[in-house]
Specification:
By secondary structure, the protein is mainly β. The protein is about 5% helix and about 35% strand. The strands form three sheets. It has a 17-stranded parallel beta sheet, covered by helices on one side.
Amino acid sequence: MNNNLTNRSTIRCGKEQEICSIAEALSLIDNDGTIFIDPGVYKEHLDFTKKVKIIGVTDSIIEKNSNELPIVILDADKSCTISVPVEIEGIVFTHKESISFEKLGNYIDEANDSEKKRHIFEQNGAGEKPLLYVESDAILKNIGVLYSQNGGISFSKCSAIVEKSIISHSRKMGVLIKDSATPQLVDCFIHNNIRNGIVVKDDANPRITGCKIYNQLSNGIFVKNKAEGTFERCDIYGNKLHGIALSGRAAPNINECRIYENGEEDGVCSGITILETASPKVNACDVFNNAGAGVKWFASQSLDEWAESSQKMEENDKRWHKSSTRISFSSAGGELCECHIHDNKENGVIVWGRAEPKIEKCEIHDNKTIGECFPGVIVGEQASPQMIDCEVFSHLSYGIWLQSKAQGVYENCVIYNNEDGVYIQDSAKGVFSICHIYHNKIDGITIVDEANPKIANCNIHDNGEENLKN
């Protein structure tokens, strides 16, 4: 390839080329030109200020060894700032001082939890900037963002696109989306980051499609501060805290995701946790095998209050898990529609603290731990959900438990094969209409003392002891 400097529309950069520095190639290339990067290690600081294409390898980086990839190593206190709409493909970026591997996909999966904790909480050498700071409509394909001393990629006020890339082992979050940014992340692997996998805040509205978000030491996804976003067909699993945590008027759409195996074996964390005034729309998701409940609404707690109230969380986890806002006794809402919530270690759904969600056409079943008894649905004090066309079955405790002062409307629901169908505690006031309640082991509906529900046009039959117990 011709590196004649009178023709700067195409440049090849490499250790055996006339131009051996990416920074030098960037200084020489014309706008709209293309730089081809040979495999090798490039220890330099880069800022992208020209609209160019930068191409390393064009096939997947996951199967490559370190000798087959261009690897850009930055100082711990440096970022690559992308302020123009460049296209970058097939390059690895890292803060790690030396990096060598036989297969990238295996290499980035090696660190275990103890190694990751040591990495994050050793403050010496920790940086203050993400590896990539994107503030333009850039296109990033098949890139690696590994071992950042801070965050992996930060998006601000842009509509960038990231495809088929790996963001892992950052000391903070893998991806930060803020300041009204609207990026798209497609078919990416976001994993083994020390805090959250993805943080969305400050009116940002991304689209995250087909990504695998797993094995963070905090949440898989955290949406807060009036942010929105669409998360579709993602797998969110194996994160130490919640699969998805929402707070502070967050209103994302979560569609056709699988959310599973999140939380440790202590019941503290859930597949989806909805705090404060968050109001998501969750549609056609499969939420299963999480350490706590499948879905929790905690309208009376902010995320920092939740973290402080959890005695089982380590101090370092609490430190990184705090929200910047404190809003108490507010009203969380949102919708949970056509979801399958099953085989979680505790409850299927919990609605607490003035939360008012709509739960429609959901299957909630088999949420239990061997030797423990958990209701399928708990409705706490002052909570008032609307449950329509749901099936609640196969729990070792109540199908639905209305705690003291709980309310809500339960319409056309089928509640069966639980220990008890519905248990309505003192001062609760739910409305049950057109429900089918049958084949529960003990009672169909139990109404305790001063509870005052309205039960209309329900078919309650063939329960083990009493169909309606006052």
